[in-house]
Description:
- The structure holds 2 protein chains of 2 kinds.
- By secondary structure, chain A is of the alpha/beta class.
- Chain A has 13 helices and 11 strands.
- Chain A has 2 domains: 7-109 and 205-225, Thiolase/Chalcone synthase (Peroxisomal Thiolase, Chain A, domain 1, 3-Layer(aba) Sandwich); 133-202 and 228-381, Peroxisomal Thiolase, Chain A, domain 1 (3-Layer(aba) Sandwich), CATH 3.40.47.
- In chain A, a hairpin with a 2-residue loop joins strand 5 (190-192) and strand 6.
- Chain A is globular.
- The radius of gyration of chain B is 15 Å and the shape is globular.
- The chains are: A alpha/beta, B mainly beta.
Amino acid sequence: MTIKGKAYLAGIYEHPTRHAPDKSTAQLHAEVAKGALADAGLTKADIDGYFCGGDAPGGAMAMADYLGLKLRHLDSTDTGGCSYLIHLGHAAEAIATGHCSVALITLAGKPRTGTMPPRAIGAEVDFEAAYGATTHNVYGMCAMRHMHEFGTTSEQLAWIKVAASHHAQYNPHAMLRDVVTVEDVLHSPMISDPLHRMDCCVVTDGGGAVIVTSEAIARSLKKPLVRLIGAGEALKGPRGGQNLDLTYSAAVWSGPPAFTEAGVTPKDIKYASIYDSFTITVLMQLEDLGFCEKGKGGPFVADGNLISGTGKLPFNTDGGGLCNNHPVNRGGMTKIIEAVRQLRGEAHPQVQVPNCDLALVHGTGGLLGIRHGASTCILERV
Amino acid sequence: MDSTVKYPAPLGNPETKMFWDATVEGKLLIKRCTACGEAHYFPRALCPFCFSDQTVWEESSGEGEIYTFSLMRKSASGPYAIGYVTLKEGPSLLTNFVDCDMELLRIGQQVKVVFKTTDGAPLPFFTPV
């Protein structure tokens, strides 16, 4: 049993806003759903499966009712920013088994306008909450250990931001469009050692949506055919504090099954959307997915190797979370959307990868240095 | 965090009551599984490794070394250093490093537990030896 080739990404939509004080969060979910339906050439009545994460106000039931959906499949798996990649895999499972035929996945929210809802409280609360873990310092702890063990440098991390900025200059919707240099990153204020401000992603309002459907329905539509051919998901946490190792992520477990299912290897990938909450997030995931050896991520990303047109592995050609958009502090959705643009040939001409027929999308969610989810999806153009 | 920071009191529950009773006495407890022999933190009734319910409380030496850390410089309550300590008994735990020059922290540094008061049970923190 496999999901390989069973589900097609028929519609995509990234909300153009980066600041939406005049809209409600539920409204943003509806607007991105409408946008993705229009992109696919489908209508709301066609949707029979709905997938959302913790950003949907009131949860899946309230959100589906607000949208006016009539469903036979519902999934509200939440693993932070990679939830929407996991939803993509789950949507493919539901489509492959006939439990739905047109699945909608939405993400939206307004962290730039207002505060985010508090994180869910787990059994660890008394043993962690007092210590002030934030995304910045938790990813900072990972970077600090990676530098200690492998000699990774701030200059190498900076190249990831530099590459993202080269791509963002062509994206009219990107929040940050200025091309930056390694020196710019190193001279930006230290936020949480060893991460500088420019090692961190943007904070934006907005959202995005994807429509996933069966081959038969996808072939009846007008868009180029893009399908999912491999998916993997995994979780990692301190798990009792035994053999703590913050130098790798759950991508070491989500990647291999996705590659195996797809029947491809990292060398075959033409374009990669890699979650970039921070520069260190990208570096660790590239290693964990097998694009380079563990500990060699620094040299791999240096000297523009991630820049489309010149580097060996073009990544995040929309500018990614580092420069373009990071709606709801959750970057998984925009990663899927840019990969589909690349596979359709709809990316900006300056960053479009020639003959892009195989792409990888990988995300992480939660707190990389404490507990996090991960999902790897491999997409191909038919 | 500076000395004016008020730390949150632990909520507590039946599973962790012994731990918080011990911090009042200045003791750091960990749990050890008598079935598989492994120690873990934070404490669970069932071993997170072998799932046995034969877990017992054990007093930690409170000594260990810094596995990693990050000095958070942008904070409304002032800079603070978050990190993981690997205890001599094996488990690693999340904490803050206090009562020290945070600029001098380094991976591998030897540290020991200190307790800070709250409106409830005291919380464990670590400081360089």
